[in-house]
Amino acid sequence: MKKNKKGSDNLATKQFKILFFLLLLFFTCNCFSNAEIFNGDTWFLFNHGRYVLENGFPTIEPFTMHENLSFVMQQWLSAVIFYLTYLLLGKIGLAALVAFIFFVSLCIIYQTCLLVTKKNYCISYIITIICAIILPVFYAGRPQIFSCLSFLLSLFFLENYVQKKNIKFLIPLPMISLLLINLHASMWAILFCLLLPYIIETLYNRIKKRETYPLRPLIVTGLIMFLAGFINPYGIDAMTYVLKSYGIAEINDLVFEMMVPKITANYGKVTYLTLFAFLLALAFKKKTKIRYVFLILGAIYLLLSAWRNYPLFIVLCFIPLAYSYKDELIKFKNINLSSKQFILCFSSLVLIITLFVITSPLLSINREIKVEDATNYLLKHADKEKATIYSNQLDGGYLEYKGFKPYIDNRSEVFLKANNHQADIFKEYYKVQKGYLLPSTFLEKYNFTYIVVGQEDIIYQELKQRKDYKLIYEDKNRYIFSLK
Q1: Angle, helix 11-32 to helix 121-134, in steps of 10 degrees
Q2: What is the pLDDT confidence band of residue 17, given thresholds at 50, 70 and 90?
Q3: Mean pLDDT, to the nearest integer, of 93-97?
Q4: Among residues 287, 316, 289, which one has the least CA distance to residue 301?
Q5: What is residue 10's predicted lDDT score, i.e. its pLDDT?
Q6: Is residue 408 within 8 Å of 426, Cβ to Cβ?
Q7: Average pLDDT of span 169-174
Q8: Cα 243 to Cα 253: distance, rounded to the nearest angstrom
Q9: Is the pLDDT confidence value at 276 over 70?
Q10: Could you give the CA distance from residue 477 to residue 484 in angstroms, rounded to a whole number?
Q11: CA-wise closest residue to 71 among 44, 89, 98
């Protein structure tokens, strides 16, 4: 009995640890088959990374046809990491990077669950596997993977501090702040939203004269984290980037990932069903910690604000869920596997993982780039320096990566006047796409030399009726019109 208290696992626990580790590898390999590893954002991130390595940090936006737009490259470090990975290791390398970050994230979730449940392996396994099933859909070659990892690490160290009352666990937090402000500045402020519930809880416990963890180290750590935020190429502009870039009605209405979840849409149904299931699970357990109440409230606010925050909800809420069920479920000594059962499970998992490793990278990295053929045509027939190109947001990043300067790309907030100090370009694009601004008026304003569109774009319908543009290229995805 004494040996068990020191942490020695019985045979059943060891068996399940091995099988659980293989399951994590399986879900990690599943990341390779995620069609979103390469997406529209990937290409403008590559472009950003390449620019920083060749030219340094831009303060004037250099990639589109517009002039003198003030610019904060708020995810420059992520872009450099992605571009170097792609440059040195190719598409497989980027897929491997995403999968590695995903695997590390799952390991942190598991270790944090063990911590808050006092080593309830069964609950920790179940919650980690639930996260492993849900999260791969959202893991892609985007800065969000670094943001999620930062938040998970922060929660892990904060929970260690609470339980062990040792300030050494707070030391990594300023370093996380420093990294995140350069990896993904628009998400940096959330670090302080994670710290706040712990400060509120210890203040409440002091008022109620309950035993609690020290408050001063948390406040000092928060101040150091804030000061660390200044260590970035853009200073206070990067730290306040979120204030000028989110909550914009036009972005929320046009950009899918920024849309507020609607119960009538499929993504909305997923959102509200997840929230209902989570609240129902908590309803059976009335007691929780004050810090978890505020953590849950913040996570729900994020979830209902935009679809892109769905994975953040999962990342933030697994801890309260684990804590609520820390005394539940069976012990492993009651479900010991026979040698034959263990070997069968082990062999099956190894075989499945091997098949995924061989086949799944091919599923994601060869995803069709709809504007690729049209771009190749322009590379042969257009002058990059003189061409002014209209394309939709999703196509803009790839055109930029290939050296062209289109009208707009995926970085919606860059084209807001609040950020660029010149013009509300995104709102103009929004008005055109929604029919609030006549396409004819829009085209006469810019006189694009080339227009790259799909049939779904409202500009395509206008071009069919105009005589000043002629069709010079078409494929199954895109049409190119040139100014006569």
Answers
A1: 10
A2: confident
A3: 85
A4: 316
A5: 62
A6: yes
A7: 96
A8: 18
A9: yes
A10: 23
A11: 44
**8 A C-beta contact, residue 238 and residue 59:** no
- Taking a C-beta distance cutoff of 8 angstroms, is the pair 95, 39 a contact? no
Instruction: Please give the model's pTM, rounded to 2 decimal places.
Output: 0.89
Higher pLDDT, 283 or 291: 291
Q: Which residues pair with 474 in a beta bridge?
A: 479
Strand, helix or coil for residue 481: strand
Q: Closest Cα to residue 274, out of 159, 105, 121, 135?
A: 135
Distance CA 256, CA 265 (A): 11
The token pair at 278 is: 């989570």
SS3 470: strand
Structure tokens, 2: 């004494």
Q: What is the domain partition of the chain in residue ranges?
A: 10-340, 372-483
> In this structure, what are the phi and psi dihedrals at residue 165, rounded to the nearest 5 degrees?
50, 40
Residues in a beta bridge with 450: 389, 482
How does residue 1 score in pLDDT terms, banded at 50, 70 and 90?
A: very low
204, HSE (Cβ side, Cα atoms, 13 Å): 11
Closest CA to 481 of 376, 373, 378, 370: 378
Helix axes 76-116, 11-32, angle to 10 degrees: 160
- Quick check: helix, strand or coil at residue 70? strand
For 235-264, the pLDDT digits (tens) are 999 999 988 888 888 888 888 888 889 888
Q: Are 418 and 429 in contact (CB under 8 A)?
A: no
- Integer angstrom CA distances of residue 180 from 70, 72, 218, 359: 22, 15, 19, 33
Backbone angles phi, psi at 8, to 5 degrees: -75, 125
In the chain, the N- to C-terminal Cα span, in Å, equals 87
Residue type, 103: F
